[in-house]
Amino acid sequence: MASRRRTLLKVIILGDSGVGKTSLMNQYVNKKFSNQYKATIGADFLTKEVQFEDRLFTLQIWDTAGQERFQSLGVAFYRGADCCVLVYDVNSMKSFDNLNNWREEFLIQASPSDPDNFPFVLLGNKVDVDGGNSRVVSEKKAKAWCASKGNIPYFETSAKDGINVEEAFQCIVKNALKNEPEEELYMPDTVDVVGGNRGQGSSGCC
Amino acid sequence: MFGIQPRDVSDDDFNPRRRRWSLWTTPPASMPTTSHTSRPRKGHANAYHMSVKFEDLCGFMVEGNVDDVNVLNEVRERIREQGRVWWALEASKGANWYLQPRISSNGGQGVISVTSLKLSVLTNTVTLRRLIRKGVPPALRPKVWLSVSGAAKKRSTVPETYYDELIRATEGKTTPATRQIDHDLPRTFPCHPWLNSEEGQASLRRVLVGYSFRDSEVGYCQGLNYVAALLLLVMKTEEDAFWMLAVLLENVLVSDCYTDTLSGCHVEQRVFKDLLAKKCPRYFFPPSIFMLVFLSENHAVIVNYIRFSKWYRIAAHLEAMGFDVSLVATEWFLCLFSKTLPSETTLRVWDVLFNEGAKVLFHVALAIFKMREDDLLRIQHIGDVIDVLQSTAHHLYEPDELLTFAFDKIGSMTTNTITKERKRHETVVMAELDQRTRRLGSLKMDA
User: Fold this and answer.
1) Where is it located (chain A) (predicted)?
2) How far is A202 from chain B (nearest CA, A)?
3) Which residues of chain B neighbour A107 with C-beta distances below 8 Å?
4) pTM exceeding 0.90
5) CB distance from B327 to chain A under 8 Å?
6) Domain extent at residue A92
7) pLDDT 10s digit of each residue in chain B, 447 long?
């Protein structure tokens, strides 16, 4: 039996403090939500094995500190990222307004080879709060921002209730693979995926 | 006596009221899939893997294995013994002997001139240094910390009402700092019942908000919440915790560690990186190196020996992998290990930090790497390096194990050398931060 080859995909989650970066990561990886996460300092990461188009990948998700001054520490964390996930809280205009800063800071510090086509995904989190009544950023506004940045895929999520989290990360994986050079991606005769598919087709993001 | 309870994997949110201390005998709900040990552990092999939740020496509800609980019990016993040593010294040297003038290695606070040096002062300084490295008894920590750090002296220069007035002046005011503090209060050690209570969070808020008004350049920086929280637990009173926080940021640590670009933190990371790569003093080499020097005229042998010494190889190996120390050290240096090490171990590090200065952080950071050097050399992925270092640190329930490495196996480094290194890196860091600001500015212009 051919050995199973794995490829590492590095994903960075950025956004203001308290928008739910740690919760989104934990909901996706551990299928759990807790009110007791500690504020992240520096960065933390979780990994998850994911299957995409019959290939197996190790998805390494990096969760970062949200306070603005931590942006200056990004170089080491951002290096080698395959996709950048921007998160804002739909109930906080400031967290939405800061998305530009996070995006620019990422592009400067990660210095991707093709900044114009580097894959970003935007998540509007906490849609569960107050039944949506405290929401201040409309879906339309968020989508307009995404369109202005080269059609960034957008998802409205609730890390608490697990809404759209799986779908969003499927899209993140798909996008992380988009800009990979062909030779690194294509590994003939070495992929032997065991187990069933987990329904990848409906990410609806691209 | 200490008890343990099986970890309920389905219950991620810990409920402090659900505490039932009983020695657990049933099979565990889950087995950790990976385990990293830094030394051979005692106890039954299976028991070691069992994951349990227990209360540590500072009242934090933590998750570990049965052996961690056993180690903690031994530590608790040793703290009692160490307490007896301190009481015996009080009896012979007089109460508060450690509060008398001494030679300070901690940057100017309470320093006496060499001309007025008395033998008794020298003896006390040496004794105190040795004693503090073995640990300050929890009951004496507030008094000893205030004294050796210089916090007591700092407080004595302002009116007694300073703290109360400062807090009164901050009431009802909202600033970016207070907003961030309010965000972080419920996310600061929620695993500690008091810090998770309204009373604890109100107390922590006053200390952090108070400091943010005292130093507007720092304001509030994430990480300080963990430091202040642990200070509160040790110092017992808000005011003492506040002064310890002040002396830390203003005197003990390198400046600008927590200001808007965290430039001081950048500098510390660079110095640490160099230490990891270059610090190969004789101490690192087994005695045979000295034999080689005498016996061999072939210098190449010695050079090769040094080049391929483990320490050098670790730095080179990590570098080749693309691992940057900031991936782990950012949290270590900004939280002063409070979010990384078990609480009593952190407090033992702080005992020495307050007495000997910020270089202690390098000793401890180097020790964590050094403890796992063989494993680190085998690892090929950055993620695994971080995993090994973090899980090693999380399980360091035995403070002496860490401190022995930190001070006996790392070799000495003088504050002067570190200061020179900091100066060297400061210029580069400031230039890089400037460049980043300019690039951000031009990107905004383009947009």
Assistant:
1) Endomembrane system
2) 30
3) 443
4) no
5) yes
6) 5-177
7) 334 443 333 333 333 333 333 323 233 333 333 333 334 444 445 555 678 999 999 999 998 889 999 999 999 999 999 999 999 998 988 888 888 666 655 544 444 455 556 777 788 888 899 999 999 999 999 999 999 999 999 999 999 999 999 999 999 999 999 999 999 999 999 999 999 999 999 999 999 999 999 999 999 999 999 999 999 999 999 999 999 999 999 999 999 999 999 999 999 999 999 998 865 333 344 445 555 555 555 555 555 555 455 556 788 889 888 899 999 999 999 999 999 999 999 999 999 999 999 999 999 999 999 999 889 989 999 999 999 999 999 999 999 999 999 999 888 888 888 999 999 999 999 999 998 888 888 877 776
A-chain residues within 8 Å CB-CB of B324? 75-76, 79
Residue A186 lies in a domain: no
Which domains does chain B possess?
152-252 (1.10.8.270), 263-429 (1.10.472.80)
Q: Which residues of chain A make contact with B261, given a CB cutoff of 8 A?
A: 69, 72
CA A83 to chain centre: 7
By Cβ distance, the residue of B187, B262, B386 closest to A37 is B187
Contacts with B97 (C-beta within 8 Å, 6 or more apart), sequence order: B89, B90, B124
Q: What is the layout of strands, in order, in the sheet containing A83-89?
A: A43-52, A55-64, A6-14, A83-89, A120-125, A154-156
Residue labelled with tokens 């032997």: A192
Residue whose tokens read 């603005």: A68
Nearest residue of B to residue A110, measured between CA atoms: B436
Distance from CA of B9 to the nearest CA of A (A): 11
The two structure tokens encoding residue A7: 């490829």
CATH number of the domain to which A137 belongs = 3.40.50.300
Token representation of residue B348: 């033992």
Domain tally for chain A? Answer: 1
